[in-house]
């Protein structure tokens, strides 16, 4: 963990916390989940956490007071003393994948392995949901042993099918619905990753995703 956090106003009902690295963001997100401020939503991204009181039934003055209480605690927080995030007790979601994506060989080549080795590696251990973004239910997944960047496509596709499993940068992900995109696609799943009638997103930050190869 490096430099201290930075707090920035983000409209009348939110504060943006900027952090020096992903490990600090993970630890801070865990700490925020442990404190008692139920009206404040905690929304992590790659190097930020948004603290948001979006419930409009709460008066703006009360929302700002709640944010002041949280940010007061943050201002005196010792980031170095926060325990590292631990995903081992989080929810595990199994996602069955047909590894027949059009970019399977490309991704394997970028990671210096065969297509079969890529499939074995991708399914060998769970991935962690770092945060949700881009579209509802789109979880950015990481693993400690995925430290090599995968290049995005030079020409993005105009429509990626829902359920596509892909790579970009040091993330893997499942597209919850059809969308344009430049991620490299290695497979496809029938797993529903976002459904408002069933509670919304299938995963949340710090959940784990276990991919499983199926024919």
UniProtKB/TrEMBL annotation:
Keywords: ATP-binding, Hydrolase, Nucleotide-binding. Pfam families: CT_C_D. This is Allophanate hydrolase subunit 1. It comes from the Bacteria. GO terms for molecular function: hydrolase activity. SUPFAM superfamilies: Cyclophilin-like. Residues 5-204 form the Carboxyltransferase domain. InterPro entries: CT_C_D, Cyclophilin-like_dom_sf, PxpB. It comes from Flexivirga alba.
């Amino acid at each position: 963990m490096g430099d201290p956090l930075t707090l920035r106003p983000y409209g009348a009902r939110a504060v943006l916390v900027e952090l020096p690295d992903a490990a600090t963001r993970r630890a801070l997100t865990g700490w925020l989940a442990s404190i008692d401020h139920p009206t404040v939503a905690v929304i992590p991204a790659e190097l930020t956490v948004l603290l948001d009181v979006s419930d409009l039934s709460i008066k703006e003055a009360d929302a700002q007071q709640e944010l002041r209480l949280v940010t007061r605690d943050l201002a005196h927080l010792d980031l170095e003393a926060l325990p590292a995030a631990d995903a081992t007790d989080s929810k595990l979601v199994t996602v069955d994948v047909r590894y027949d994506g059009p970019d399977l060989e490309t991704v394997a080549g970028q990671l210096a392995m065969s297509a079969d080795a890529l499939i074995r590696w991708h399914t060998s251990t769970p991935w962690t949901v770092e945060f949700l973004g881009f579209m509802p239910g789109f979880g950015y997944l990481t693993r400690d042993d995925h430290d090599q960047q995968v290049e995005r496509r030079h020409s993005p596709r105009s429509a990626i099918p829902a359920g596509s499993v892909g790579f970009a940068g040091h993330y893997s992900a499942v597209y919850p619905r059809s969308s344009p995109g430049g991620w490299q696609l290695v497979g496809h799943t029938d797993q529903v990753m976002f459904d408002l009638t069933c509670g919304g997103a299938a995963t949340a930050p710090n959940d784990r995703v276990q991919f499983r190869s199926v024919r």
